[in-house]
């Protein structure tokens, strides 16, 4: 699983992994959360981005429909209103449900089993996917999911979690471009919570929780990550794609249109002096811990 605070490069990393011949890469954000997610973080982050909670008395079909998975279901069921409508996608959500039910009937019902069935079923009924035939790993991405990383790594004993972080000045400058942006204080609260959970989880799972800086991803860090995971250093890691088709820009998968080091640094420069100082104050010790203390 991939996770990242908003505008931190999660979608960029997701798209760079897309064409790797050994990976089943989920086509959109894999929004696995359900409406039953209720905890101390529920008021800060949307539940669609969280690790799901399933009802004890639910049926497998109820489980399936409770997974929010908004981007994929909208593209499949009402493609004319999807922001991905211009990208071909031969896929049926009903057929995925039926395949999911078959997998759960065969392997049992539990949270990790449900998630495995959900990913496997997705690729079993994605008919125009460009497959290499050598795929080994499933890759999903949800913003802010690192807040649940410890639970995920406890429940899925062979899983890895990759947390992507970007310098908070560029990240906040990009989030300001949203139609209804978060305030600086609200954004930095989310950013620092993500880094806290990532660093804490890495202490428990140093070999399975990987922290990547977007600044390093743009300089080829995914080649080294794949090598550590026993995967090939494939040339596709150098360019974003969807279903193996190269993208000129990451948008509409993410708000970072041109994923280049110079663009990343220039974006930080869009903030006022007061905003830069306030971001620094609120980022606190995480700037030094993540190597950003001298970025600006």
Characterization of the model:
This protein has 296 residues and is mainly alpha-helical. It has two domains: 1-27 and 134-296, Rossmann fold (3-Layer(aba) Sandwich); 29-125, no CATH class. Helix content is 42%, strand content 8%. The protein contains 13 helices and seven strands. The chain has a three-stranded parallel beta sheet, sandwiched between helices. Strands 2-3 form a two-stranded parallel sheet. The protein has a two-stranded antiparallel ribbon with strand order 6-7. A hairpin with a 2-residue loop joins strand 6 and strand 7 (245-246). The longest helix is centred in the middle third of the chain and has 21 residues, at 184-204. It is globular. The chain starts with a strand and ends in a 7-residue tail after the last helix.
């Amino acid at each position: 699983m991939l996770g990242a605070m908003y505008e931190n490069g999660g979608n960029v990393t997701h798209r760079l992994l897309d064409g790797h011949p050994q990976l089943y890469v989920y086509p959109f954000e894999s929004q696995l959360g359900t409406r039953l997610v209720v905890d101390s973080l529920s008021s800060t982050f949307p539940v669609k981005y969280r690790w799901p909670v399933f009802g004890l008395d639910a049926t497998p079909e109820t489980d399936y429909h409770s997974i929010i998975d908004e981007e994929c279901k909208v593209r499949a069921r009402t493609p004319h209103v999807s922001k991905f409508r211009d990208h071909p996608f031969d896929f049926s959500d009903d057929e995925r449900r039926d395949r999911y039910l078959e997998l759960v009937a065969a392997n049992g019902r539990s949270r990790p089993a449900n998630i495995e069935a959900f990913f496997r079923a997705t690729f079993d009924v994605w008919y125009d996917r460009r497959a290499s035939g050598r795929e080994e790993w499933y890759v999903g991405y949800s913003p802010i999911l690192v807040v649940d990383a410890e639970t995920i790594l406890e429940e899925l004993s062979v899983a890895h979690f990759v947390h992507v972080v970007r310098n908070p000045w560029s990240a906040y400058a990009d989030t300001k471009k949203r139609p209804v942006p978060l305030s600086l204080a609200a954004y930095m609260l989310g950013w620092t919570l993500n880094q806290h959970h990532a660093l804490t989880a890495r202490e428990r799972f140093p070999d399975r929780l990987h922290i990547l800086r977007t600044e390093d991803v743009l300089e080829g860090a995914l080649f080294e990550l794949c090598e550590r995971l026993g995967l090939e250093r494939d040339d596709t890691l150098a360019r974003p794609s969807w279903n193996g088709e190269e993208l000129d820009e990451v948008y509409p998968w993410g708000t970072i249109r041109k994923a280049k080091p110079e663009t990343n640094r220039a974006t930080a420069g869009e903030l006022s002096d007061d905003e830069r100082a306030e971001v620094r104050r609120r980022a606190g010790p995480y700037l030094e811990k993540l190597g950003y203390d001298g970025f600006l």
